[in-house]
C-alpha cells in the first residue's frame, strides 16, 4: 500500500525559473496539504486542497506561489520566478476524509528545492 | 498568531530511561493534537494523536493532554538510541484546515 508520493525528490533551479512540485496522496485519501520547512525552521502550513478545490490557502505567499489538485492526477505546487529564499524542503501530506476537524496527516518524503 | 511552543533541546537521556517531551499551544479552540518524529533529512512520521483530555498509550509511547492548561506531552519509556530524532508537536487549528507545528525538540539517547 503506497504512501504519499512526491516528485521530484530534489530539484535545482536558477533564480527566475519555475519550480513544479508534485504530490500523489495515499490511496483513499482525498485531502492534500502542503508545508514548507526552511533550514533551522519549523514546518509551516501553506495550503489545504481537496479535489478541484482550494479550502485554505492562508499560508501561501501572495505572489508567485499557486497550488492545484485536479480531478485527475497529482496535486501540483507551482513556484514562479524562484528566488534564493524559496530554497527549502516542501512536504506534502494527505489525510482521509472525515466528519470534520483535523484527521491524522501522513507525510510524503518531500522535495528539496535549491535555488542557485 | 497561533503558536505552538517546544523546548528546542537537546534533551539527553541514557538508554532505558524515560524521555519526557513537552509542548504548549495558544489556541484554546484547538481540538486535535499530534506528535511526529523527524530524523535528520527525512520527512515527519506520525507517532501519536490525541483528542481528549488525559493519557493515551501506544506501546512505549504515552501522549498526555491537558486542555485547561493548553499543554501536551509525550513520554517515551525504555528509550532506545534509535529514538534519537527531533520530535514535533502539532496542533490542529480551530477551522480544522491546518496543523500548526512547534519547532521541535531534539532527543538524544545514549547507549
Put the structure in a nutshell.
The complex is a heterodimer of chains A (116) and B (111). Chain A is mainly beta.
Description:
The complex is a heterodimer of chains A (116) and B (111). Chain A is mostly beta strands. Chain A has no helices and eleven strands. Chain A has strands at 5-7, 10-13, 19-24, 31-37, 43-50, 53-56, 65-68, 75-79, 88-95, 106-107, 111-115. In chain A, a hairpin with a 2-residue loop joins β5 (43-50) and β6 (53-56). Chain B is an all-beta fold and 111 residues long. In chain B, 0% of the residues lie in helices and 53% in strands. Chain B has strands at residues 4-5, 11-14, 19-25, 33-38, 45-50, 54-58, 61-66, 71-76, 85-92, 99-101, 105-110. In chain B, strands 2, 4, 5, 9, 10 and 11 form a six-stranded mixed β-sheet that branches. In chain B, β7 and β8 (71-76) form a beta hairpin. Chain B is globular, with a radius of gyration of 13 Å. Chain B starts with a strand and ends with a strand. The mean pLDDT of chain B is 95.
